[in-house]
Amino acid sequence: MILVTGATGQLGRVVIDHLLEQGHAGQVAALVRDEGKAADLKAKGVDVRVGEYDDVASLDGAMKGAEQVLLISGTEMDAAKSLRQHANVVDAAKRAGVRFIAYTGRAMRGPSATETELMRGHFKTEDLIRESGMTYALFRNALYLESITYFIGKGRSHPGQQATFETDIRLPTDHGKVAYALRIELGEGIANALHQDRGEDRVYTLTAGEAWSFDDVAQALGELSGKPVTYTPTDKATFDAQMRERGVPEAMARVFYGFYCDIRDGQLDEVTPELEGLLGRKPASLKAGLKALFNL
Ligand code: NAP
Fold it and tell me: What is the DSSP letter of 96?
C-alpha cells in the first residue's frame, strides 16, 4: 500500500491517477485533510484517510498498513512550521514501520545560496528523511511552468478562468533562467518512478531539457500571440513599489522577492535528462507549455 499525502492537491491527484493507470488499484491510499474534497478519489477506489500534518495522532492513524509514503510538501508559508509538519510525517512513517518514503522538494542548485527560508526547508526535510533510516526517493521538482501564469498573469489564474498575460513584463529576475516543467508531467514522472521502485535510495532532479529566461518567455509569447511582448529586468525598489500598488502584504512580497532572486542568481537553471527518462519522451518546451496555459 502506498499512501500519497496532499492527495486533494493538484500534484497529488496527477500522481494518483497515474499510479491507478499503472495497475496499482487497491494499493493506493490518500491522506486528505478535507474528506469533502475526496469524493472523486473514493470513486476511483482510493482508500481515503483523513489527516493533517500538524496532527500527529491523525498521521499515526493514516499510516496504518502503508509500506510506502509519498510526502507531498505542504503549503504552509511559515518555514519553521512547514519543516515541523514535514518532520511529523517522516516521524509517523518511521513509527508505523513504513519501508520507503518519497518527498517532493525543489530543483535548486543548493541550500546555501537560496534566498528563501521556505526553499531551504526542502533541503532540511531531505536531511530528516536521509537520517530516518527508511529507503527514500527525493524528487527535486523544477519550478512549475504553470507558475508563469502567476508571475505575468493579468488577472491571476484560477481554475476555470482563462489566464491572460502582461505584454510589458517587469520582474527582478535579470536574465536568470529556469528549467520549468509542467506539473502534470512532474506528477506522471513521479508516479513512473514510484512504479519502478527498486528498493534503492534515489535522488531525482526533475527539470525540462532546457532553461529559459523571461526574455525567452516574452519572445515565445510574442510569437504565439502575434502581439509585441517585452521583458524589462527591474530592481528591488521598483518591485517593492509594484507590490505595494497591487496591495500585496509586505511579508508575502518578501517571499516573492526571494523566489525572484533565486531565479536571478541561477538557482533554478539546472537541466537534467531525468524527467525525460521517467516520461519516455521529452518534457514540454516553454513554447508548448505557454501555448497550452494561455490557450494560444
Ligand atoms: P496544491 O495544489 O496547493 O496541493 C497541496 C496539497 O497539500 C493539498 O492537497 C493540501 O490539502 C495539502 N496540504 C497542505 N498543507 C497540509 C497540511 N497541513 N496537512 C495535510 N495536507 C496539507 O499544490 P501542488 O500544486 O499539488 O504542489 C504540491 C506541493 O509542491 C505544494 O504543496 C508546495 O509545497 C510545492 N510547490 C511546488 C511548486 C513548484 O513550482 N515546484 C510551486 C508551488 C508549490 P488541501 O487539498 O486540503 O488544501
Answer: T
Cell of 203: 535522488
Point out the ligand 1 atom lying closest to the alpha carbon of residue 141.
Answer: 41
- Asked if 187 and 206 count as a contact pair (C-beta separation under 8 A), the reply is no
CA 5 and chain centroid, separation: 13
Say whether pTM exceeds 0.90.
yes
* Residue carrying the nine cell digits 517532493: 104
Residue 58, ligand 1, Cβ within 6 A:
no
CB of 84 closer than 6 angstroms to any ligand 1 atom: no
Query: How many Cβ atoms from other residues are within 10 Å of residue 226's Cβ?
Result: 8
- Which phi and psi angles does 98 have, rounded to 5°? -65, 135
**In the predicted structure, residue 158 carries a pLDDT above the cut 60:** no
For ligand 1, atom 43, which residue shows the shortest CA distance? 144
- Mind listing the pLDDT tens digit for each residue in 113-154? 888 899 999 999 999 999 999 999 999 999 999 999 888 876
Region of 199 please: left (phi>0), alpha (psi -120 to 50) or beta.
Answer: left
**Residue for grid cell 510569437:** 223
Sheet holding 135-141, edge to edge: 47-50, 28-32, 2-4, 68-72, 100-106, 135-141, 202-206
Terminal C-alpha separation, the chain: 41
Does the beta carbon of 275 sit less than 6 angstroms from any atom of ligand 1?
Answer: no
